[in-house]
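Intended use. Records such as the Abi-like protein entry shown here are meant for training and evaluating sequence-to-structure methods. They are not intended to support clinical decisions.
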Amino acid sequence: MLKEYLDHEISTPEAAAYYAFCRQANSDLIRHSLKELKGFAKSAKRLKAAGKDAPPFLPKLTRIYFRKVEEQARLFTALSIFEAAYRVHLATWMEQHYGVKKWWDPVYTTLIGGGGCAQVTNISGVELTPAVANAIDKLLKGIDGYDLKGATVVKQANGHSLLCYSKLSDLEELIKEQWVSFKASLRIHNPSLTALPSFISAFKRIRDSRNSCFHHREVSDRPGLLRSIENMLDLIDIHLDTASINARTSAVKPMTTGIQWHERHNFGLVQSLTYDIELHFEDQKSRSTIDGRTQFEAIQRAIDGVAADDRLKLKGIQIQTRAADLAKTDIEEAIKKVGVIETRFQQ
């Protein structure tokens, strides 16, 4: 992969570290990371031609790679908000439209009895078109298997719980086949999205990106994707930024690990240092000793362990290495970093 995407020669020790890193890395993200290093490779060639040493390769690669990991991770929150919102919205709408909680039951009962979904022409007296009956058929078989031998559907008491087991493509199909009635449940903040082709196009784009993200393939045009999610959520009165901030600023218990770092885990990253950190709150101070490869990483780890209510009281930060002079961090800059810290450690 290194030769294919980046025509750059590295030393034997660096090659060993590179392959050690690749053994734990996502190949798709590695490939895209290498593409971003083409400028670095050209500069390295010019330096070598001039008889100078090129800068280390691996630190630059890992920095880009882990940035991409974090970019992917941040999409999970937005995609999760979108997916949950439309499952709930569609389930609520269908219960209201058909007047019953188990709106799928007539189709399910007919299929279990050996009949076909086209035999069901209404649900609780509300007309059911063959296309909608077929969409429900696919939904049920996607959950319990083509022969409906599973036991999941029969245990569900309402559409909210049923659609938790569905695929996003099932939601898309149900919305498309009931569009004339369903679109009345949407706000017209963005008129273009209340046209079926535009709505389905945006929904499919988000669904495809969700599948790429959840299968650890890099999602292209993340800003465009987030705009699509934001606009689609706005149709059902959900504000993406507010929902995302609420998730990001919650205090998640830090992940604990039991295996100590060993040289065999090393793939070329800077060695960790020990830092003394003092967090200044409105009425008290908190001191801790944190390991990190940089001061910022140590600050991240320190703030990650602070409860949500206490984060609102944070006034200042002081940090020093065990062998360095005390360095004060500007509080406004530190507070800006808190959002990044919370996002990184929650994902």
